[in-house]
Amino acid sequence: MDNNNQEQKIKNGEEKIMNAINSGEIKMIPRWRFVLNTAFMVSGGLLIFFIAIYLISFTIFSAEQTGVWFTPFFGGIGFYLFLKSMPWILVVLSIIFVIAFFSLVKKSSFVYEKPLVYSLIGVVAIVTVGGFLILYTPFHQEIFNLSRHGQVPVIGVIYQSFGPSRSGDIHRGIILSTTTSGFIFQDRSGETSTVIVKNTQKQFPVIGDDIVIFGDEDSSGTIIMQDFREVRN
Predict the structure, then answer these.
(1) pLDDT at 17
(2) Domain 170-230 CATH assignment equals 3.30.465.10
(3) Which of 40, 137, 147, 205 could form a disulfide with 209 if both were Cys (CB 3.0 to 4.6 A apart)?
(4) Residue 227: HSE in the Cβ half-sphere, 13 Å Cα cutoff
């Protein structure tokens, strides 16, 4: 008896679907259109994914090259400089593309069945790891070097705006030579400055050290160093 009722329900359901199709309430989607939509979704998702990991890696690259990434090590004033000097435009763009990528991914059956929070954490983790993988390649540095010679006309402008440059009281570079009162410092963009070292209880940096300097720069380009951190690559 139960089997007969089940078969009757299935039959009634099939009849309702066929009637809806015949009446135009339900429209059959052609296979080619389904394949095309899927292709657009996949290609769009991949494009957004790669843009997201590119932006994340470029944001960190910019912050590292200017020295802003290391400012929290300078204590309270360092956190202030971090918040003040971070390339927030890039940060916001990165967040937008991560959200856009998540919006596409959550429509898939695999992600749709998972709790929203876990899915979001998973997407953020994947995109962030992808960003760091790009960061640890010479990709951004090569583009920046080419942009300095005008070999990448469009994207080069972005790298000149957000790439290695001085950021207020934070300076990153290497020590070229020492002086009686400090040392000669070359930043990541190739500019040199005289650094005067005030009282410091740390071990004095040596020639060739990659360091981040916290200090004021006067009109002549001389930096009065208040503190420094060595960057270990």
Answers:
(1) 63
(2) no
(3) 205
(4) 13
